[in-house]
Design goal:
single chain, about 170 residues, alpha/beta, Rossmann fold, 5-stranded parallel β-sheet, about 50% helix
Length: about 170
């Protein structure tokens, strides 16, 4: 029997959801579903993503949700040997002299994406992102391209929701 995948969410999943189709005031069920799926040990992220999510104002919906609703267990630490070894390999690839522009390398080196792929690689998790591959890009290092290069599976938010059998039902207001 194969084990169900563990989904590791990128910061853009949260940010895009709160800015558009799953805004807190429109679809609270999305956020409730994420918390529920985390309690079922199916949805997580990493501490570096938490840092990216907390860069907003303290009164912003997403920052409040992360600080008041999300348990500490949601954001996994990346300081394990197998994760740091994978991260070193990923960083060396990203820093290759001719592959990417310097500003793309600098942005990648300070962001969470490399750590996300390293954690997923070390733990067999599936990365969830809204980014699309751009294998010929020199200006940006896209998360799906890093995943593909290192044999890490990635999917979009909707694919994850379908696999988790999440449904949002309408609750009309009288």
């Amino acid at each position: 029997m194969t084990q169900a995948p563990v989904f590791l969410l990128d910061s853009d999943v949260f940010i895009a959801a709160k800015n558009a189709y799953y805004a807190f005031d429109i679809c609270p069920g999305f956020w409730e579903a994420l918390l529920h799926q985390h309690q079922q040990a199916k949805v997580f992220s990493i501490s570096r993503v938490r840092g990216e999510l907390l860069t907003g104002r303290k009164t912003e919906d997403l920052v409040e949700w992360v600080t008041t609703q999300v348990p500490d267990s949601w954001f996994r630490e990346v300081d394990e040997d197998q994760v740091t070894t994978a991260y070193t390999e990923i960083t060396l690839w990203a820093q290759s002299p001719t592959r990417f522009f310097d500003r793309a390398k600098a942005k990648f080196a300070t962001g969470a994406d490399g750590w996300l792929v390293a954690y997923a690689k070390a733990h067999g998790a599936v990365v969830i992102t809204n980014e699309q591959p751009a294998p010929d890009s020199k200006a940006e290092i896209k998360l799906p391209d890093v995943c593909e290069h290192f044999g890490v599976q990635y999917k979009g938010t909707f694919a994850m929701l379908r696999e988790l059998a999440v449904q949002f039902d309408f609750r009309g207001m009288e």
